[in-house]
Amino acid sequence: MAAATSSLLELRQVTKQFGETTVLHPTDLQVERGEVVCVIGPSGSGKSTLLRCVNFIAPPTTGAIVFDGKEYHPPKHHRWIPALGMSEEQRLTRLRTEIGMVFQQFNVFPHLTVRENVALGLRKTCGYGKKAADERAVEELAKVGMAEKAAAYPEQLSGGQKQRVAIARALALEPKLMLFDEATSALDPELVGGVLQIMRDLADGGMTMMVVTHEMRFAMDVADRVIFMDRGGIVEEGTPEQFKAPQHERTRAFLQSINRG
Amino acid sequence: MVFAFDTNVISDNSGELLDGLLLTVEVAALGFAIAALLGLPLALAGQSRSPLLRVPATLWVGLARGVPLLIVIFWLYYAAAQEGLFSLTAFVAGALSLGLTGSGYMSEIYRTAFSAVPSGQREGAAAIGLSRFQAFRLIVFPQALRTAIPPGMNVFVMLLKGATLLSVIGLADMFYTAKLVAVNEFKPFELYTAAAVLVIAVTLIAALAAGIAERRLSKGVRR
Questions:
Q1: With contacts defined as CB-CB under 8 Å, which chain A residues touch B141?
Q2: Does B116 contact A at CB distance below 8 Å?
Q3: Total domains in the fold of chain B
Q4: φ, ψ dihedrals at A194, nearest 5°
Q5: The domain containing residue B124 runs over which residues?
Q6: How many degrees, rounded to 5, is the angle at CA A25 between CA B129 and CA A252?
Q7: Which CATH number belongs to the domain containing residue B95 in this structure?
Q8: Nearest residue on chain A to B216, judged by CA atoms?
């Protein structure tokens, strides 16, 4: 199927259901190359689900995703022989090497050193040899100020340091799009700034980003576009400037409630 | 008659007892190896989306855990041979019985160990483009293995103790030797005590080894 779009990413009528519960109503969205989109909204509004649908970590129930000109559909699993869905599964695995993701809980690998965490993807999905991957990993770690911790295990790191490693791990694969799923929500307050700064620098460097966040200052400063989600759908979207005078009552109520906090 | 614990009868027969012990440990170790190897695909099949894999695996685990070891031993050694299905030596039949019984337990141990790995680990692995198989092999399995070691150790101890049952099919293991000497020398108390002590000694050594293995695998992980 031809994907008639120049956007880097397009979501077409993407929905997500868990059993009977709909957590994402049919959603359309386009993200342009170099654009930074911040997704805000109350918890349970479907923002993380939206992000997880993009790289099929949580495959959408229906709909399609167009990324870099290629169209992807939720894999259908044969009831008796799941292996029949393998070819689509393999396409999705390749897609994920082009999309980096950073999680709230870091999800660094505790049994591997910091260097191995970053080198693993390079070796297994980019065809690097061990030595080249290790060298490259240290370079990536240096960019987030973690080079001297290369030989440490994640348990020896603070939350902020773990998240830096997770960012280096994602960036090492030279993704075309970065997804940040509440990347600073699990951090101690004094560690938030450092991670946000890395994200800022990344945005300034032209990276295309989708950022689910509760950090309104960050969203207002860095985003090209802000999306407000509630109850499994996009309620309102616009520039940060437009969000200073939101159109919808629910957006107003949400922004008021977090400004009070 | 005054009861006295006769240590001489044990030291006089220690060579035979230790030979028997070696055989007991061998058959238990082989049985455990079979159980550990069979348990892995069983655990994976049990979690499969396809009922074609899930149903047989669940049945197998239920049978392996449900049928008493002694019945499995008799079935493999006597019944199968009688019906002309196959005929096995006592050692092979013993190791297989232990392995089949243990596989059900090992499968359950793997299953819980896999589910103890946080789902975020699979997501992290998927996010860097690892396939489901790579994520399992490189991320989930190594982390699950160390959770599986202490309960796996219990299965080994269970099989080691179960191995004493193999004396009923004439395997000249440690317990068989102890029984023989006990009957010949009229010293059952001494010999069965010695047998118990030997099994406990092996159990302790195995626990020690498991502890070392667990520590080595826990590199970088807080307990």
A1: none
A2: no
A3: 1
A4: -60, -40
A5: 18-171
A6: 105
A7: 1.10.3720.10
A8: A111
